[in-house]
Every structure is written in structure tokens, then in C-alpha cells.
Amino acid sequence: QVHLVESGGGAVQAGGSLRLSCVASGYNYNRDCMGWFRQAPGKEREGVAAIYNDGVTSYSASVKGRFFISQDSADNTLYLQMNSLKPEDTAMYYCAADLRPGGNDMRPTDFGYWGQGTQVTVSS
After folding, report:
1. 2 has which bridge partners?
2. What is the Cα–Cα distance from 113 to 110, expressed in whole angstroms?
3. Per-residue confidence of the chain (124 residues) as pLDDT tens digits?
């Protein structure tokens, strides 16, 4: 059983910052890559950022240069530092683990485990 628990969401004004955390626990899952996704009301879930065990990162075009993904392997914690937030960043943010071999790190269906999400609301 794998559990992912996100925290750190909240309400901020445009231009502000938030840091999301995701604590992972459990065994028998692919730890090579973890990712952050988001889903706004009425929209599909979309990839935001991903990080691999070797430190390689990837970002969606909409957040590149503003969001930064990192991880603390000792604590099994994934982070997402979000800067210069915009109203269009408003969404439920989810962390994901267990990317299937050869999968796309920005495609939700390629990840096997999900957290419950944490809400981020950015006001103008």
C-alpha cells in the first residue's frame, strides 16, 4: 500500500508564493519519478512538474521559471515551490508516484498512485 499526503495549499494573492509538500509512505512502487499535477474546475488534470531520482526535472510550459520541484529522499518528501503565482494557477494540486516504465511524466494516466490533493487559490 502506498500513501501520498499533500499539504501546504492555501489562498494567496497574485504574485505570492506557496510551498507544497507531499509525504510518501509504503513499499513496492516505482520510486524513479514523482510528479505534481493540478486540476481546475471543469478542466482535465494536467502535469505541472516531475523529478527523477537522478535529479532531472521537467516542467510544463505554463509554470517553467516560476515553479520548482525538489525532493528529500531521506524523508520521502516531494516539494513544489510556487512563485509569482497567477489566478490561472488556481486548482487542486496532486502529487503522484509510480510512473510506469517508458511513461510520460506529464500524463496523469501513466502514474499509479495519487494523493488526495491540496487546494491552491490565487486571487487577483
Report:
1. 26
2. 10
3. 789 999 999 999 999 999 999 999 987 777 889 999 999 999 999 999 999 999 999 999 999 999 999 999 888 999 999 999 999 999 999 999 999 999 999 999 999 999 999 999 999 9
